[in-house]
Design a protein that fits this description.
Elements lengths: L2 E6 L22 H9 L7 E5 L17 E5 L7 H12 L6 E6 L7 H13 L5 E6 L2 E9 L3 H5 L8 H4 L6 E5 L12 H16 L1
Parallel strand pairs: 1-2, 1-4, 2-3, 5-7
Antiparallel strand pairs: 4-6, 5-6
Length: 206
């Protein structure tokens, strides 16, 4: 079974005043590089990183020898998250994957273990339409979607995410509760980023 990956890193960072991926958690670590490095450990084939046209890509971590990573420039990313997702889906479709894991670039504590749980759950239950992460009752990325859902995902508009899909009784899915809650911290604002950077520094000291 082939599972692809889409890493959404093309957001303009409107609430942050600048794109988020190059923000530094430490002198050596940039926000966008962390979850991407974890995804590269999960045998996603291919792993498409959706980026802005003006991104210099200096935040990208070095690719390992087994990496299937490729970047896809999205010229319409400024119109909303769904446009970045559509760019990613168009890039993976020629590879005919059975499913795709969709992740966002501002979650610094997502782990390869969490992504592997999504994949393993789907492999054991291929009749599912999706496998999602949940924290305190709220569905969160990353999430896995079967090939049957690709057309539905392509039909999303603006900044609408896939949450409405997962709240619909029309589709069959599973949500996986994960601890700790910090796994799903995201840099939605500068205040949120400050919390992530503080948590990152604590992790480095522990």
């Amino acid at each position: 079974m082939k599972v692809a990956g889409i890493y959404l890193a093309a957001g303009p960072g409107s609430r942050m005043g600048a794109p988020k991926v190059p923000f530094k958690l430490s002198p050596e670590v940039k926000l966008g590089s962390i979850a991407l490095s974890e995804l590269e450990r999960c045998s996603l084939e291919p792993l498409v990183v959706v980026v802005r046209a003006d991104d210099n890509l200096e935040w990208l971590p070095p690719a390992n020898e087994q990496s299937t990573r490729r970047t896809e420039t999205c010229l319409t990313a400024h119109l909303g998250l769904s446009f970045s997702l559509r760019c990613g889906l168009n890039a993976i479709l020629p590879m005919q994957p059975d499913a795709v894991v969709v992740a966002i670039s501002d979650q610094a504590f997502i782990t390869a273990s969490l992504v592997s749980r999504l994949k393993d759950t789907y492999v054991r239950n291929p009749g599912l339409d999706y496998v999602a992460s949940t924290n305190e009752g709220m569905n969160m990325p990353p999430a896995l979607f079967s090939r049957r859902m690709f057309t539905v995902l392509q039909g999303l508009d603006g900044d609408k995410g896939a949450a409405e899909i997962m709240h619909s009784s029309e589709y069959k899915g599973v949500v996986l509760e994960s601890d700790p809650a910090r796994l799903f911290m995201d840099a939605g604002s500068r205040f949120d980023f400050g919390d992530i950077r503080k948590e990152w520094s604590f992790r480095g000291e522990s």
